[in-house]
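Tokenised fold entry reproduced for everyone:
>
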Amino acid sequence: MLAAAITGKRKSQLVQKPDPSPRGDFVVVKVHSAPMCTEYTAFLDGSPSDSLGHEAAGEVVAVDRLASVKVGDRVVVMPQYPCGQCSLCLAGDYIHCEHNVDVPALLGSSAATATMAQYVVKQHWLLVPIPEGMSYDHAAMACCGLGPTFGALQLMAASAEDTVLIVGLGPVGLGGVIAARDRGCRVIGVDVNPYRLALARELGADEVLEANDPNLASRIRRLAGGRGADMTIRCTPAPQTELLAVEATRRRGHVAFVGWGGQVPVNTIIGKGLTLHGAWHYNLNDAPALMALIARSGPLLDRFITHAFPMARIQEAWETQASGRCGKVVLHPWQD
């Protein structure tokens, strides 16, 4: 099979890797849509790798034994390789599993643990059915496109009565605009990128603000009735955004940290009585609700997914991501 690889600073190519085989709970999925996430930072840095990507939608093509899926099923491939046996996994919170499976040791190869490739192996219980009539590209947004912010909104029990501030309008934050508007929330978006501020407007944000405004926190509070946002989702590791998130949220409000990195301003959190949520992904039991959101959001997803490339054009795809002039970018491993 072919897989994408980083070979140097801003250099990439496709490489040949062995086709995987199913084993035990691990089935083989033919990848039809592979959304791109933060791997472009390694492309910019020149960190060599031929095991890239953690989002996918595709078709089950090989099963070793009786499983919850069968050959021909269309599925979304969830990230990570959790144990499936601990209390977190059994409760649906597999993303926080502390006992992830050593897949190369188990299967004797790391050839198919990444999604920027023609095939990927995954435990059958981490494959979410794709509803009839839904495209692979739309279904794949159930991973990092909509997943982290959907999970954050679930944790915070967001409703139509709430004003939601989204700090960082990269692909994750833009997905949050769709997810929050689907709940009827009023949405305020913040970013430095004019392209993404405009795209957030197209996706339904009520207000978009330039992040470099020195009076940003006070402007947000005024827009949110003078008190501040009811809920804030921080979707970027950019410096000082964690401080903005807590300063712009009302007292006794909620803040969800999705973007990794930064320092938490503890005194402000205590003083305002904020509730914090670490929102990496979403509970697997909520997957049907997310797939229903995706089904309702087709036209918005067509705007959200701004670029799609055959995997053979991986260099162009990463350069597009690096430009910042994009929403979600997807690869099609089997297209010429």
